[in-house]
Specification:
The chain is mainly β. The protein has a single domain, classed as TonB-dependent receptor, beta-barrel domain (Maltoporin, Chain A), CATH 2.40.170.20. It has a 22-stranded antiparallel barrel. A 5-stranded mixed beta sheet has the order 3-8-9-6-7. Strands 30-31-32-33 form a 4-stranded antiparallel beta sheet, with no helix packed on it. Pfam families: Plug, TonB_dep_Rec_b-barrel. One of its GO terms (biological process) is siderophore transmembrane transport.
């Protein structure tokens, strides 16, 4: 007897028993050894056979989390990964990492698949970026479909991702959507509404809240329809979400429309077809954020820039008289009202899958799909806005800037799986091939000296444009063999060979092998003696290699052409690299999974050690060549650590259940070798201010700046330039969760934490410079040198960023009313608080660090610099779900 989520049970029945009704009670399978997964395996395979860890999150676990984007949904759900939103602006980028930072050049965001189709996962600013180079870049993850999800699977690199080849060293997230329901039609209506409030915990001035923020309104409505009969199934969902945001004049509002369908059909006895479609329309309104030049609200208010902007106010807002503050409020209100910055995203995704079973133990699968995403970023600056914020009238500086990005991703995969069993052995053989092609086309078109009221650049006196185009094709074949002995001991072997259009012409096929084992000692007869204490156990270990392919076209030698005095002019372009190849991340890992006291306690522990060889560094040429920097495989990076997670169910009765979960992960990251390359920055500003840097012997993205030494009197004595100021990567992180059920009432809470990282507050540094606050600088230094040394002791503005953040607290109550002759099957009423509590060692929000990425689009970043960035708001939401 099998049922998803429960332990398999074998029964022997007599003829008399077989003809009578049976009551069979299945035990919940918390170890999930017999759960079937697909991510990283080519096709379906049970977890007991795997030498790696696959995290699987089901619909029930996802249902009650009121998230608006997939990374936010997973924030406290993935035990061995860390997800941080870099700001509170709608659609802001995030930092996602699990086993450290394995590249100094490529972003750590995992690749994302929806029903086997590779999605656009850009999580930094685009190459042509729309004024957000150091501000709140828009993330392509923010509009990945959220509705109609059946489950989500996550693998965090190493041997688990080997079969994805040159594209998976950072891990893989796969979203599997619904393709049908039960044998009857089911209708679900779901609504969430509530209040959004600004997170003011980390504001320096009390009056900033009154100056810049408002309470907002959030609403989300969804309708779902599913059903099926025989071999046919269907599922549909449609959703509408609107948030006014918490910034005045709704300057951080978001409106979204989601449509998704899924189908499955049996096309005969041996052929099945599955299809899914989704469409997303996402609209954002943005105010100016971070380092975008001119007036930006948080820089003006919190960084003390009000002392040099517009009418020039007293930068100590809390010390202003009521009359002064009222004047400032009027100035800020007009500056915010006159902004017109909008982003619109349209996204279409589809997946088509055919499965053919010519034999009971042989299956072939052909899959293909498209991800098409179009983003338009429009920034309108009127003469009225510039006159107001600049403090002097202008009539010829109005401008409109448009930044368009179109992404087209095509994915094709064909594979087959054959399963063969003997008395003691089982063999699962998987062979397949995959191809994906990504096209990224960007264009910027700007108009300057344009009249107020214009919304297109057609009337501009000056019009300019720019373009960016990139294409990449990756193709590979893979073979995997999983050998089992008596369903308790398994060996896992596999290899993938890849070609890629970004490889140098002298680089042939790149191979990625893996080998692993898993052993289930609890399946042994001798284990019965301790089964009352250790109810289930699994030991696993593996070694595998995955890759990160280089930037498309970085292998090519080019000549650059730029106009000069109205004529063509040629000069050295990119030198090219015929030996350019992917980064190779080799990972060894071992672990143990235990179920204790009847699986009341589930514990998993493991250790990993990964080495990135052929790491990509941008290398400057000899000055005499006159050439530009070139991407080369010269570095080596190490990540190692322990991963622990546990779930405890101390109480479980028919009426009452209490469960708690926790994870703890350690991380040690280091650049072992830079291949002789000089240190370079991946985020930040000039070397004179603050940067996050890559340098041999240090963690990736450590803080580097001026270190000031003060004498006994508190006066700056000397400054040592470009010193190590702390790592931006935590050495400890994890999450916490609790669930309590009493009959039909459920309470839940989730949190995550980190320890050991540092960040620099540029806001504090500016506040000191503009005289808004002394920020802990000795008075003797101010008396002696005033504030002229503000950049000479950057170490004084660096803080530890340990935190514990409660992401959600909520409750749900379900009832089965007798309404309309049983038409309403179930009613669920809930209340959830999102981001309700923050506990941090830093004076600023440790998460809201600029996304940066000095290496350009898709570049590596570790955060570490807090500068004029909004915190994610709090939400207090009520929900109602009706099932028909």
């Amino acid at each position: 007897m099998r049922f998803l989520g429960y332990k398999q049970q074998q029964l022997t029945l007599s003829k008399d028993e077989a003809s009578k009704p049976l009551l069979i009670m299945l035990e919940e399978d918390r170890m999930r050894l017999d759960e079937v997964v697909v991510t990283g395996q080519g096709m379906s395979i049970s977890k007991r056979r795997l030498s790696t860890d696959v995290v699987s999150i089901g619909e029930k676990e996802l249902q009650d989390v009121p998230a608006t984007r997939i990374d936010q949904l997973l924030q406290a759900k993935l035990p061995n990964a860390q997800i941080k939103l870099t700001g509170g602006q709608a659609g802001a980028s995030s930092m996602v990492r699990s086993r450290g930072i394995n590249s100094a050049f490529i972003n750590s965001t995992p690749i994302i698949y929806v029903d086997g189709v590779r999605m656009d996962n850009l999580n930094t600013r685009a190459a042509i970026g729309g004024g957000s180079a150091q501000g709140a870049a828009i993330s392509a993850i923010a509009d990945i479909p959220m509705d109609n999800i059946e489950r989500i699977e996550f693998i965090n690199g190493g041997a688990a991702t080997t079969l994805y080849g040159s594209d998976a060293a950072n891990g893989v997230i796969q979203i599997i959507t619904k393709k049908g329901g039960s044998e009857r039609t089911e209708l679900t209506l779901d609504t969430q509404m509530g209040v959004e409030t600004p997170t003011t915990d980390f504001l320096f001035f009390d009056r900033t809240k009154d100056l810049l923020f408002q309470n907002g309104f959030y609403q989300k409505h969804n309708v779902g329809l599913s059903g099926g009969q025989g071999g046919f199934g269907y599922s549909f969902s449609g959703g509408y979400t609107k948030s006014t945001g918490v910034q005045i004049f709704d300057n951080n509002s978001n409106e979204r429309i989601d449509l998704r369908t899924g189908f499955r059909a049996g096309l005969g006895d041996k052929l099945t077809y599955e299809s899914s479609f989704s469409y997303i329309n996402n609209s954002y309104k943005r105010n100016r954020n971070g380092n975008q030049g001119g007036y930006t609200a948080l820089w003006f208010a919190e960084s003390g820039a009000s002392a040099i902007t517009g009418p020039k106010f007293n930068p100590d807002i809390d010390a202003q008289t009521p009359e002064e503050f009222e004047q400032m409020k009027e100035y800020v209100a007009e500056a915010e009202r006159l902004q017109n910055n909008k982003i619109r995203v349209n996204r279409f995704q589809t997946s088509q899958i055919f499965r053919y079973n010519p034999l009971d133990n042989l299956v072939f699968k052909a899959a293909g799909g498209v991800d098409y995403r179009v983003q338009n970023d429009k920034v309108v600056q009127t003469n009225q806005y510039l006159s107001h914020t600049g403090g002097k009238p202008v009539d010829n500086q109005g401008s409109i800037a448009n930044y368009d990005r179109k992404f087209l991703g095509l994915t094709f995969e064909l594979n087959g799986q054959y399963e063969f069993r003997t008395d003691n052995f089982s063999f699962v053989t998987t062979v397949g091939g995959q191809l994906f092609r990504n096209e990224d086309f960007q264009v910027a078109y700007r108009g300057e000296n344009i009249r107020d009221g214009a919304l297109t650049i057609s009337g501009a006196a000056i019009r300019t444009s720019d373009e960016y185009i990139t294409e990449v094709v990756n193709y590979g074949i893979y073979v995997q063999e999983n050998i089992g002995f008596k369903d308790k001991a398994f060996i896992d072997l596999g290899v993938r060979g890849d070609g890629n259009s970004a490889f140098g012409k002298n680089i042939g096929t790149q191979y990625y092998p893996k080998v692993g084992f898993s052993y289930i000692p609890s399946a042994e007869p001798y284990f019965d003696r301790i089964a009352s204490v250790i109810s289930s156990a699994k030991v696993r270990g593996n070694y595998g290699i995955a890759g990160n392919f280089p930037t498309p076209f970085a292998n090519d030698r080019t000549i650059s052409f730029t106009g000069f005095l109205g004529e063509q002019a040629a000069y050295f372009g990119q030198p090219g690299n015929t030996e350019l190849k992917p980064e190779r991340v080799a990972t060894f890992e071992s672990g143990i999974d235990l179920g204790l006291w009847g699986d009341r306690v589930i514990f998993s522990g493991g250790y990993y050690h990964s080495i990135t060889s052929d790491a990509l560094f941008m290398v400057p040429p000899a000055p005499s060549t006159g050439e530009s920097n070139q991407l080369r495989n010269i570095g080596k990076i190490r990540n190692k650590g322990f991963e622990f997670k546990a779930t405890v169910v101390p109480v479980e009765t028919p009426d009452f259940t209490l469960s708690a979960s926790a994870s703890l992960n350690t991380l040690d990251n280091k650049v072992i070798s830079s291949g002789g390359a000089a240190p370079f920055n991946i985020n930040g500003f000039s070397a004179r201010t603050i940067q996050t840097v890559v340098q041999e012997g240090y963690p990736i993205g450590f803080l580097r700046g001026n270190y000031g030494y003060f004498n006994a009197e508190g006066i700056l004595e000397r400054t040592e330039a470009q010193q190590y100021l702390g790592t931006t990567i935590p050495d400890l992180f994890g999450n916490l969760g609790i669930n309590l059920r009493y009959k039909s009432l459920t309470f839940f809470a989730n949190a995550d934490y980190q320890k050991g990282a540092y960040a620099s507050s540029f806001d504090r540094q500016f506040r000191f410079n503009y005289g808004a606050s002394n920020e802990g600088i000795p008075q003797a230094e101010i008396d002696a040198n005033k504030r002229t040394n503000w950049l000479n002791f950057t170490n004084m503005f660096v803080e530890k960023t340990d935190y514990l953040k409660v992401r959600t607290i909520g409750m749900n109550y379900s009832i089965k009313p007798q309404l309309w002759n049983g038409v309403v099957k179930n009613v669920s009423i809930g209340f959830t608080a999102v981001n309700p509590l923050n506990f941090a060692s830093s004076s600023f929000d440790p998460e809201t660090t600029i996304s940066g990425s000095a290496q350009g689009q898709g570049g590596a970043t570790t955060g570490g610099i807090s500068y004029a960035t909004y915190s994610a708001p709090r939400q207090f939401l009520g929900s109602l779900r009706l099932n028909f």
